[in-house]
Amino acid sequence: MSQPIIELRHVTQRYGDHTILKNINLTLESGKFYTLLGPSGCGKTTILRTISGFNQVTAGDVLFDGQRINDVPANHRNVNTVFQDYALFPHLTVAENVAFGLTLKKLPKADIATKVAEALKLVQLADFGNRAISALSGGQQQRVAIARAIVMQPQVLLLDEPLSALDAKLRRAMQSELRDLQQRLGITFLFVTHDQEEALAMSDEIFVMNNGEILQSGSPVDIYDEPINHFVADFIGESNILPGKMVADYQVAFNGQQFECSDAGIPANEPVEVVMRPEDLTLTTPAHAKLTVTIDTQLFRGDYYEISATDDRGHDWMIHSVNPAEDGATLGVNFRPQDLHVMRLHEKEAEFDARLETYEGTEESSRDQT
Amino acid sequence: MKKLSRLYLILVFIILYLPILYLIMYSFSQGTTMTHYHGFTWQHYRDLLADPRMLAIVANTLLVALLSSLIATLVGTLGALSIHRTSKRVTRDVLLNLNNILMVSPDVIIGASFLIFFTTLKIPLGFGSVLLSHIAFEIPIVVLMVLPRLKEMSPSMLAAAQDLGATTRELLSRVIVPFISPGIFAGFFMALTYSLDDFAVTFFVTGNGFSTLSVEIYSRARQGINLEINALSGVMFLFSLLLVGGYYWLQQSNQRRKRKRQGAAS
Amino acid sequence: MTKRKTWLYFLPYGLWLALFVIAPVALIVYQSFFNLDHQVTLDNYANYFRSGVYLKMTLNSVWYAFLITLFTGLISYPTAYVLHQLKHRQFWLLLVILPTWINILLKAYAFIGIFSQAGVANDFLRFIGVGPQQLLFTNASFIFVATYIQIPFMILPIYNALDDLNPAYVNASLDLGANRWQTFRRVIFPLTLPGVKAGVQAVFIPSLSLFMLTRLIGGNKVITLGTAIEEHFLTTMNWGMGSTIGVVLIVAMIIVMQLTNDHEPRGGAPR
């Protein structure tokens, strides 16, 4: 494990009676793509501003390369930001915008020109240097903002919901472009978003936040497959969440039946919640199924059908299926033991990680201690 | 209906321009009255150019206008920056209201109160008092022209500049001032016209030795018709046209430059 | 930025506020309590309220300012409205602004010629059969010239208000079945009222103090508050009484501001 580039230790932020950040601990390693994911107002942008130097925390330490930087002003930190509204200077051209930081450093003119050209080439705007900012499309402005930040060769690039102003198609294209850019530059990206799809697509590691706390951190696959609680399961992807009770290790009961599952380390008879992803459920004939449901409605999503159904106990189910079902039909639902994920109520991330360690072994080595 | 409204508009424009054209027409008329055109002559313009007192007053007027506008622009811009930086709403509202007092006060009040002020401080009336008065009543208009541009500036743009390493001084010189420069320019321009236009304030604080064009026209007009004034108005009208034209051209060429850059995109 | 530096930036502007805004207003109020012999007294105010001359003069001045504002408004609103519908309206608007750049005294001077016994105005009256009249040095000529001078300052804020009006409101009104006149009366006019108020502010207050017009055009028959102040300050040298009338004018100004203030003044007072 390499030396962490950014560390937040016990960071708390209060405005009057309002607590924005509650004892945040977070470690970023060099050269990885991180995402802070959470609903608006959860404190993710405050963390970003804390790292960039626009926010003074109430308590705790901010470390850069092992040095405490709480009191270093924004213009002296080797960290740059891509702002949500891009914040390009309207009175300067594209090239002048990108050169802005370098001219402040009083670099020789020739060096600046080379670096600006390189940066613009990197974001595929090589011929746009002389344009006015107002002459660019949203996607192009986005790229200029990125070029302006990366030309400073920061060790960490902070991105504050940079894709939120773009239309859906462009957003998808920019996702792979950003990921590609990060891998080519080899620097740390910290990306802030409320869009779970963006987070899952791009990140090496995601921090899921709510109400000023980091609820869970891990790789996109870990977080998607093993959400720590109801909030995370609901916030990331579609899910069916049902109340249940642990029977024994690898055995859970819900809907009046007992099912095999892949979770352990929970005391018997403890009330739990069970998560099943809609795409893990398959429709079949009632005779061969674990559950029976009645189809209510379905929406065609292009690559699959989103089917809403109700079971005989009145719980709503969402099932993704490549084939349509008939409204009002009674069908069976099947799933495998590994498709069930059991969540304890009020379990903290550390306890969750420790419990997983006890029965999943070395598989979890990629998980970081936070 | 449409024809009627056009007719109305034409009538209003005739009323607006008739007196001005009337003035200029008689500047080319022989004789000494503004009644019945007596044939073309340049005589009044020659008289004007041969009138050393009038020429000195023109020079004085221009000097006061330029000097006062420059100083007012500087102070007003600093004032707008200070008002903009004020985070407390109450303080800002108080500052803005104080700023606007001279904007809405009648000229006589400004003139009379400045006269008391200069007399109390024993500042002699003349060039100095006129210059100070002009600077004083020009500052608020500069503030009002600069403030909207400051408000348009997004906070994240300032954050971006700091993020890229700008110090406070560089922030001001590289980002804020270039961004608000159209407002500063417009403020300077407005200050200039306010100064050239002013009569009442100058009339109060000018004393005996010093005069500006407005005051001179007033004292000559009280003595009756003098076609040299008509010639002067011809010159001033031309000057105004040139100023308006120049201002308009500057704005247009600014936009053209912008459009040229934008044109490259499509 | 350190606290100290900020303070330095504010210094020139703050000095201006203290010396040229607060001090003069304070001085004029202070001065109004002195008589000709530099003694502190309330005589000026007593004089103002007891002798009918000053009160009558004030009423007169307010009445004339009201008429000037009214006529200006009646002429300017339709002008701004028609202007706003034109194709090259920016150009026409520039033509409205241009006369404001001609020195106000030159415009007043022009009317001395136009209204004279043998001037065009009388030529016109002779032509339509009314016969020559004494035009110069009458109340009517004063109101006419003042209105002429103020028109652009009323057109501009109304034009701006019309420009700010979202055309969707007009379309919505027409869509809901209102005719053109109803749309104007119930949608356009109420929504452009702030512009009218700004115009009233820009015209009414200066109209109380147009002393050069009363001298050049009104022939001293019309005495406005402005004329009285000028006379007391520069002719009779009774600064105390002049300041007292000044205080009255300031109070009148505050009242007008309160009545018309839901909008920041756009262009400011004409000079």
Automatic annotation (TrEMBL), chain A:
Alphabetical list of PANTHER family matching this protein: SPERMIDINE/PUTRESCINE IMPORT ATP-BINDING PROTEIN POTA, SPERMIDINE_PUTRESCINE IMPORT ATP-BINDING PROTEIN POTA
Role, per record: Part of the ABC transporter complex PotABCD involved in spermidine/putrescine import. Responsible for energy coupling to the transport system.
Signal peptide range: none
Pfam families assigned to the protein according to its UniProt record, in alphabetical order: ABC_tran (PF00005), TOBE_2 (PF08402)
Gene: potA
Name recorded for this polypeptide: Spermidine/putrescine import ATP-binding protein PotA
Domain ABC transporter: 6-236
Taxonomic source organism: Levilactobacillus spicheri
Subunit structure: The complex is composed of two ATP-binding proteins (PotA), two transmembrane proteins (PotB and PotC) and a solute-binding protein (PotD).
TrEMBL record, chain B:
Domain of life: Bacteria
InterPro entries: Bact_Polyamine_Transport, MetI-like, MetI-like_sf
Membrane topology: Multi-pass membrane protein
Record-annotated membrane-spanning stretches: 7-28, 54-81, 101-121, 127-150, 171-194, 229-250
Domain ABC transmembrane type-1, chain residue ranges per copy: 58-248
Keyword Nucleus recorded: no
Keyword Signal: no
Key words, A-Z: Cell membrane, Membrane, Transmembrane, Transmembrane helix, Transport
Record-level GO cellular component terms: plasma membrane
Subcellular location: Cell membrane
GO biological process, one term: transmembrane transport
SUPFAM superfamilies in UniProt: MetI-like
Protein family membership: Belongs to the binding-protein-dependent transport system permease family. CysTW subfamily.
Protein name in UniProt: Spermidine/purescine ABC transporter permease
Source organism of the structure: Levilactobacillus spicheri
Automatic annotation (TrEMBL), chain C:
InterPro entries tied to this protein: MetI-like (IPR000515), MetI-like_sf (IPR035906)
A Pfam family this chain is assigned to: BPD_transp_1
Gene Ontology cellular component list: plasma membrane
Name of the protein: Spermidine putrescine ABC transporter permease
Bilayer-crossing regions: 7-30, 62-84, 91-115, 135-159, 237-256
PROSITE patterns per UniProt: ABC_TM1
Membrane topology: Multi-pass membrane protein
Highest rank taxon of the organism: Bacteria
Family, as annotated: Belongs to the binding-protein-dependent transport system permease family. CysTW subfamily.
GO BP annotations, alphabetical order: transmembrane transport
PANTHER family: INNER MEMBRANE ABC TRANSPORTER PERMEASE PROTEIN YDCU-RELATED (PTHR42929:SF1), INNER MEMBRANE ABC TRANSPORTER PERMEASE PROTEIN YDCU-RELATED-RELATED (PTHR42929)
UniProt-annotated location(s): Cell membrane
Domain ABC transmembrane type-1: 58-260
Source species of the chain: Levilactobacillus spicheri DSM 15429
Keywords, in A-Z order: Cell membrane, Membrane, Transmembrane, Transmembrane helix, Transport
Major place of residence: membrane
CDD domains recorded: TM_PBP2 (cd06261)
Segments forming a coiled coil: none
Tagged with keyword Transmembrane helix: yes
